[in-house]
Amino acid sequence: MEIVTNNLSELNIKGERALALGFFDGLHKAHREVISAASGENLLCTVVTFKEDPSLYLSGKTEYLITDSDKEKELCKIGVKSLVKLDFNEVKSLSPEDFFSEVLLKKLKAKLISCGDNYRFGNKAAGDVKLLSRLCEKNGVKLTVIKPSKYENELISATRIRGLIKEGEMEIANIMLGRNFSFKGIVIKGNRIGNKFGFPTANVALPIGFIKPKFGVYATIVTISGKKYIGVTNVGVKPTVGSDKILAETWIQGFSEDIYGQNIRIEFVKFIRSEKKFDSLEELKNQVFLDAEKAKSEINI
User: Fold this and answer.
1) pLDDT tens across 199-231, in order?
2) Cα–Cα distance for residue pair 301/299, rounded to 1 Å
3) Spatial contact of 249 and 203, defined as CB atoms under 8 Å apart
4) How big, in percent rounded to 5, are the helix, strand and coil portions of the chain?
5) CA distances (Å), 41 to each of 3, 30, 38, 45, 76, in order?
6) Nearest 10 degrees: CA dihedral of 198, 199, 200, 201?
7) Cα dist. 192→200, 250, 253, 286, 288 in Å?
8) 155, 22 in Cβ contact below 8 A?
9) Are the beta carbons of 204 and 248 closer than 8 angstroms?
């Protein structure tokens, strides 16, 4: 997949394109419908997004649902041939008309455009799909506007999915994402207390700017060197033994190898229980085994 991050002055896109417009945070089901609408018709399917989510950029907060590298891999999986990442600072002052003519038409060679029906563009998000429709018709560009997708009579959105993840509602969040919520990280050294009880754990810090799931214990799928294992993951600050930062600490069924410094992926399947401070390490050990049985009953790999 072609990945373009050039400044506007250096953009040199060749050939007419089908553009899917949006930030696509999380690449949830509704996002995939927009991207699918930009496929076919002998035009290069190109996702046009930003290096930073404009809404998060303006608010100063970051709660990403997917890392940049994972987003690129997912886009490639669903057949996107080109990804253009614009610098929000370069275009935020452009009027909707100028953004359309100078960026979408001249720079990105738009011949077909797809977007959601809540798509906004231009300075202060002044442009909407009605204006976009008029501009497309005037310039011979086909426009496909995707109506909102719903789950249980409510719109699928990144905001709704974030709320579910913060509440530990992973099963519903995963349905709307169309995949398991997950992230990759490097295994770092912990206090090694688990080793003493026969259940060594892998500690991974959440990616910078990533959304923080509800603190507690989850049934997870852990991928190590391409192989999947059932896991029990505690997200939080490890109240029984203490931690100075938020970690995802995972016990991995049937695995005891030294993987310090390795990248592993953790997929969240179901919330098991809230984080708890135990009176003793023996009590913690017993609870880990109970959590493991629960995880095994929830996951089949």
Assistant:
1) 678 999 999 889 999 999 999 999 999 999 999
2) 6
3) yes
4) 30, 30, 40
5) 21, 21, 9, 9, 19
6) -170
7) 7, 12, 17, 17, 15
8) no
9) yes
| Residue entry with tokens 């959304």 | 211
Tens of pLDDT, residue by residue over 258-301, are: 899 999 999 999 999 988 777 677 777 777 888 888 888 889 88
Q: For residue 14, which amino acid is it?
A: K
Q: How is residue 207 written in tokens?
A: 């990616």
The residues, ordered by sequence, that sit 6+ positions from 66 with a Cβ below 8 Å of its Cβ are 25, 26, 27, 74
* pLDDT at position 287: 79
Closest to 35 measured CA to CA, from 115, 151, 121: 115
CA-CA distances (angstroms) from residue 284 to 34, 130, 171, 278, 280?
A: 46, 58, 26, 6, 6
